[in-house]
Write a structure and sequence with these properties.
Blueprint: E1 11-12, H1 22-36, E2 39-48, E3 51-59, H2 66-82, E4 91-95, H3 106-111, E5 116-121, E6 129-138, E7 142-149, E8 152-159, E9 163-168
Parallel strand pairs: 3-4
Antiparallel strand pairs: 1-2, 2-3, 5-6, 5-9, 6-7, 7-8
Helix pairs in contact: 1-2
């Protein structure tokens, strides 16, 4: 699935020599996140205005507040200070993945069951299709959303392997 677009002034940093991978960082911080009651949504290195930023996105079923992000940041700072995850200085940024968050992992898809989603899908080499509706089910083989068609709600079953991207959408 594709990565979300970064704001134009912020670009993902290629995995430079001398920094730990997001996967390694995830393993290091997993116990601390569990203690704070938040789930990891994503980790990435960014470069912004000559600064290196370690962005860690966390969430709960009820969402996360600014105070919770600050609490998690303080806990993670203590944990990450013990490990040498970067040979260069960096800023730690803890945030929510946002209301219209991308769905990048199987766990994120499973947590989104019951929520409204937008899915871009299609077999490789074909023009993509877009569908929006409530996510009814997700598995490694099939993804089912409920769409509205001619004032009726109908399930749309999509092979999970054909999904190019997906995100939660705000249901107003």
């Amino acid at each position: 699935m594709s990565q979300p677009q970064s704001p134009s002034h912020t670009r993902p940093t290629p995995q430079p020599h001398g920094v730990a991978s997001p996967e390694t960082i995830g393993e290091i911080i997993a116990p601390a996140l569990a203690q704070t009651g938040v789930a990891l949504h994503g980790i990435r290195w960014l470069h912004e205005h000559r600064r290196t930023i370690l962005q860690i996105m966390v969430d709960t079923e009820a969402g996360v507040s600014l105070d919770e992000c600050e609490k998690v940041s303080n806990v993670l700072t203590d944990v990450l200070d013990v490990y040498e995850i970067s040979q260069k200085p960096y800023d730690l940024q803890v945030s929510s993945p946002g209301a219209e968050r991308p769905l990048r992992t199987p766990d994120a898809w499973l947590q989104a069951v019951g929520r409204k989603v937008r899915i871009v899908y299609g077999e490789e080499g074909t023009a993509p299709s877009t569908a929006e509706g409530h996510l009814l089910a997700y598995s490694s083989e099939l993804t089912t959303i409920e769409i509205r068609k001619k004032q009726q709600r109908k399930p749309l079953v999509i092979p999970t392997s054909s999904i190019r991207s997906g995100k939660i959408v705000v249901d107003i």
